[in-house]
Write a structure and sequence with these properties.
Length: 316
């Protein structure tokens, strides 16, 4: 059971003209009081602000609602939705929250739509630069910057950042592409951003991330769960997407670079193999599986432990 309550600075926003080049943002926030104010400040300081930013508090029990509500009253482009629902936080809950946010875009004209996580900061020209790339390349469907995280030595680019893949954390999607892939899918083991990119490329759209555009991620990737539990989930996700077994195991072995190192790789492989042992049903259709495996097999020539140059691509 989901109940929603909406708050904003004004009762409505007049839709821009049909040739609008603007963008909108969607955020699902669950107990993000520690970081969300920094995220809000980063968007407020953008040189090109979104036409509308819908922030959904997904059953938060901390001060998230108060923080977002205050900023929604101060800034007309922010709309705040408070969801009250049963159960805790999950990947499915996030997608359902984003779908609730999408309902508040009805009647608004825009050409680009993006997800923005509630635990990060951006440079002031982040969206201006993404929009320039999208307008310069009509076939570019999904784009983002590179995620940087601080593991004790300052913010640094994640070792598995890849120009081929646009992380969901601060993604911008061309509306035609978003409609073609039918938005973000509801998936048991997560990976909605990965599936969106597979679908986009399958329909002929290009996907890229830009190393020069930095996303400062305050919470480490996978930091909301135990590392081994998260690695096991990622393995199950690989299976549910129909990843080529050789590629999936090789990708898991590359994770020995991540704490707790060898155990992380073993846990991910176990998660992947468990799908076969339990005869689990795949979460994506045969067309997507065939396309993904064809992509993966085309990249077998790139050694898994080879340190990629900035222009080399391999799904991490």
């Amino acid at each position: 059971m989901i109940n929603s309550q909406t708050e904003s600075a004004s009762p409505g926003i007049v839709a821009p003209s049909a040739n609008c080049e603007g963008y909108v943002l969607l955020t699902a926030a669950y107990n993000e009081a520690a970081y969300i104010e920094k995220t809000i400040q980063a968007v407020v300081e953008q040189t090109v602000r979104p036409l509308r930013w819908v922030i959904v508090s997904d059953g938060s029990t901390d001060a998230t609602d108060q923080i977002v509500g205050t900023h929604a009253r101060e800034h007309g482009f922010i709309q705040f939705v408070k969801l009250t629902r049963d159960g805790g936080h999950s990947f499915g809950a996030k997608i359902l929250a984003l779908r609730e946010a999408e309902k508040l875009l009805t009647g608004l004209a825009y050409n680009f739509i993006g997800n923005l996580d509630a635990d990060l900061a951006l440079e002031p020209t982040y969206y201006e630069q993404l929009l320039k790339r999208l307008k310069a390349n009509p076939r570019l469907g999904i784009t983002s910057g590179f995620i940087h995280e601080d593991h004790g030595q300052g913010f640094r680019s994640r070792w598995f950042n890849d120009v081929r893949n646009a992380p969901h954390a601060a993604q911008l999607v061309r509306l035609e592409c978003y409609q073609a892939i039918e938005g973000y899918a509801l998936l048991k083991h997560g990976g909605e951003d990965w599936y969106a990119q597979i679908s986009a490329r399958m329909y002929g759209w290009e996907v890229e991330s830009v190393p020069e555009l930095k996303i400062f991620h305050f919470r480490h990737t996978g930091g909301t769960s135990h590392p081994l539990r998260n690695a096991f989930r990622l393995g199950k996700m690989d299976y549910s997407f129909g990843s080529d077994p050789v590629f999936a195991i090789g990708k898991s072995l590359r994770r020995v670079k991540e704490h707790p190192y060898v155990l992380n790789a073993i846990s991910r492989i176990c998660g992947f193999l468990s799908g076969y042992f339990l005869h689990e049903q795949r979460e994506v259709g045969p067309e997507a599986i065939e396309y993904l495996r064809r992509e993966q097999r085309s990249r077998f020539r790139i050694p898994f432990f080879h340190k990629r140059a900035p222009n080399e691509t391999s799904r991490a």
